Structure formats: structure tokens, C-alpha cells
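Ticket #4471: structure export looks truncated?
Reporter: QA, pipeline team
Priority: medium

Steps to reproduce: submit the single chain below to the structure queue and open the exported record.
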Amino acid sequence: MNPDGYLRVFRDRSIALLTSAQANLEVAVPSCPGWTVAELITHVGTTWGWATAIVRTGARDDLPSAPDDPSSTELLEWAAEQSSQLSDALKGADPDSDCWTFGLPRSRLFWFRRQALETAIHAWDVQHATGQADPIDPDLATDGIDEFVAVMLPRHIQRQPDNWTGQSLHLHRTDGDGEWMIRLGPGASLSTERTHGREDVALRGPVSSLYLWCLNRLPSTDLELVGDGAIADRWTAEVSF
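Actual output as written to the record:
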């Protein structure tokens, strides 16, 4: 996806997220255990504000503070303002310009992608908690798995380097082109390839469902599983974002 595409996703999904949150702020969010919708909105708004400062300055920044004990209306208005500020910052940014990030690429393009994906996933969380969740757009979900295995999963493995000893997974998209081979460990090692192959366990299904499974939003029972299901169960228990 290109920067304009990421920006369109960010704007669309931020509206969907905030719309679904209205009148539902006290509802629990099953896909984010321990959070209510209000707590998820606080997290998202804070993240949007943080990303805005980084995109504008190119430098690492501290997480901003959310309003103290706001009313429902104030919380949603504050979050909507954070969304608008980030949209404006991304619209005015050169995607290829140097910028602090916590993964590749080391440019503002990282934040176009990260915030589109972050917002799409949390829009799904709120919709899932309050009604019917939209599936993730297939192109975005494919890109999301690419980002997940290249940026987010290595961070997890490095934090828990002794959890995996070489177990392997194969993700196979059934609604278009897309396959990923993932080997976890030993130690902090991780290898991924965008190819077909035989692994300890294979998961097959629509790419939206595969991406949501990677992020522990859907169970493996929503996918076709071949091989050692215990590895998929371990993933669900240990890989969390």
C-alpha cells in the first residue's frame, strides 16, 4: 500500500472506531482483556497524539497524557481531535523523510503504515465488543501480516527469548495470493519467508482472519488447521499485543 492508501484507511477506520464507541464506553472489550471501550479510546487517543508529535518533529517523544476523568462527550471529543491532528500531520509529511521509529523503514512512512494498522485493529476491537465487526480490508490485512512478522513479532521474541525453540508455522491465505513461513527461536532468533512450505502447523483461511489470529483476535478454530495444534495454542497463550 502507498501513503495515500494508508491515510485513507486511517481516516476511515478512526471514524468507524469513534462512531462505534458512542453510547458504549462502559462495554468490556473481549479482544483487549481488562479494558472497557473508554479505556481503549484513551489508549488510541494517546497513541494518536504520540504519533502526531513524532511525525511533526521526526524525534522520539513521550506519550502524552489523556484528560483526567473526562465525561463521555469530552473523551470522544478529545480522541476525535487527536485523530484530526494526526491526519493533518500525515497529510503534510514527506513519507520518505528521516524519522524516529521502532522498526523499519526509518522514515515517516513507518508511521503512515503503523497508524493505519493500529487504528484498523482497534476499530475492529470496538465493533466486535459492541456489535458486528467489519473484516479487515484484504490488502491491508496482507500488509498487516507483513508488518507483524517483520516489526512486531521480533519485538515479542526479544522480550521472551527462551519461550520458543524452533517451532514453525505456515500461514496460507485462501482468498488471494499470500503465504508466510515463520520459525520461532531458538533463543531470540526468528526467521520468516513469504513462500510455501511444510511447517509444524499450518493455518489456512481468509487473510483478514489470518491477521486477526496473529494478533489474538480470533481463535484458530475460525481457520483450517493442519499439523500440531498445540503450537497454535501456545501462540494464543504467549504472543499478545
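Status: closed, not a bug. The export was complete when the record was re-opened. Leaving a note from the reviewer for reference: The CA atoms of residues 201 and 227 lie 4 Å apart.
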